[in-house]
Amino acid sequence: MKVRTLLFFFLSLLFSWTACKNEPPKPPPLPQKEVKHYTVPAFNKDSSYVFVAKQLAFGPRVPSTPAHEAARKWFVRKFKEYGFDVLEQKFQQKTFDGKTHEGVNIIARYKPSEKRRILLAAHWDSRPFSDSPLSTEPDKPVPGADDGASGVAVLLEIARQIAAHPFDNFGVDLVLFDLEDYGESGGAEDSWGLGAQYYARHLTTPVPQYGILLDMVGAKNARFTKEQVSMTYAPQQMNKVWSLAQKMGYGHLFVNIPTGPLVDDHYFVNTIAGLPMIDIINRPAGSSTGFVPHWHTPQDDLQAIDKNTLGAVGQVLLAVIYREAGQAF
Fold first, then answer.
1. CATH code at 220?
2. What one-character-per-residue DSSP string does 45-57 give?
3. What pTM was estimated for this model as a whole?
4. Please, what is the Cα angle at 50 between 53 and 223, to 5 degrees?
5. 294: alpha, beta or left, given left = phi > 0 and alpha = psi -120 to 50?
6. DSSP state of 24
7. Contact 289, 299 (CB under 8 A)
8. Can you tell me the distance from the alpha carbon of 189 to that of 270, in angstroms, rounded to the nearest whole number?
9. Is 185 in a helix, a strand, or coil?
10. The domain containing residue 131 runs over which residues?
């Protein structure tokens, strides 16, 4: 009885060893991404407001004007002051009115060799004519406080905060597109966003994984909706940014309301470069133009800017950046 029991035990061990030997090897566990917890710095809304005022002090940033050139030099100097690597992407462009201008996309890069990176952008030029249906002075250039300067001001303050609160192993491209607002009203779509079109055809490397465009992000009681081009080409990124903004207490600004497509700079980055990019842009309810009342009018001046809106947008973007840097977004 005892011998049979030992024999049975031995055979059981032999069978178990043979079965284990014939099993395919288990794949190694997937590497876990290392999550770092960076503290998100506070966005300074007063500083960003000053950056809007400084741009307006140059005058309307219409291409081929002294104000445009002075603003360009200041942008480059500020980004370099904050330790960013700066590329001036120059291009010759004929506009719909037959004139030829030298455009300059200003590309400021934090940690330019890092492959893991994102793109934040705005346009820095202002429209040569106030041709909104609501304008009473159609021949005047637009000051461009909200339409242009607000987004640029947010990016400048973000650069200042990154310089003061650096992080590792992650890159950020801050791009100022030129010749965005020299399009033909009612004309061809590709008469707009000329700088973005050039950028999309001449991407710098490493290429960002996705982008966020800021356009008209400075008005009081802004309403940032889920614009259709963004939701078509970059729905995951838009939903994540909106969800984060709402968790941060900015749900009154970042609303879950779908609105129609816009031919904005992000349209060309998406369709030409294939780089997913969303648009944070103010789409007021009940607007006859689809935009704020001061859009493409001489009233797009410093009075149109609300510090709190600048602060909310800037704080959300800093949260995106520092979460991405820590791989927690």
1. 3.40.630.10
2. HHHHHHHHHHHHH
3. 0.90
4. 80
5. alpha
6. P
7. no
8. 14
9. coil
10. 35-325
Q: How many domains does the chain have?
A: 1
**Cα 136 to Cα 155: distance, rounded to the nearest angstrom:** 32
**Which residues does residue 102 pair with via DSSP β-bridges, in sequence order?**
92
18 belongs to a structural domain: no
Distance CA 301, CA 56 (A): 8
CB 79 within 8 A of CB 159: yes
Q: What length does the chain have? A: 329
Calculate helix-pair angle for 307-325, 150-164, nearest 10 degrees.
50
Q: Which amino acid makes up residue 288?
A: S
- The rounded distance, in Å, linking the Cα atoms of 56 and 68 is 11
- pLDDT tens for the chain, 329 residues long, are 444 444 444 444 444 444 444 444 555 554 556 788 899 999 999 999 999 999 999 999 999 999 999 999 999 999 999 999 999 999 999 999 999 999 999 999 999 999 999 999 999 999 999 999 999 999 999 999 999 999 999 999 999 999 999 999 999 999 999 999 999 999 999 999 999 999 999 999 999 999 999 999 999 999 999 999 999 999 999 999 999 999 999 999 999 999 999 999 999 999 999 999 999 999 999 999 999 999 999 999 999 999 999 999 999 999 999 999 999 88
The answer to whether the beta carbons of residues 212 and 118 sit under 8 Å apart is yes
Structure tokens at 176: 């100022």
SS3 141: coil
**Strand, helix or coil at 5?**
helix
List residues bridging with 85 in a β-sheet: 109
> How many distinct helices (H) and strands (E) make up the chain?
9, 8
SS3 227: strand
Which stretches within the chain are classed as H helix? 2-22, 45-57, 66-81, 150-164, 194-201, 228-233, 235-247, 265-268, 307-325
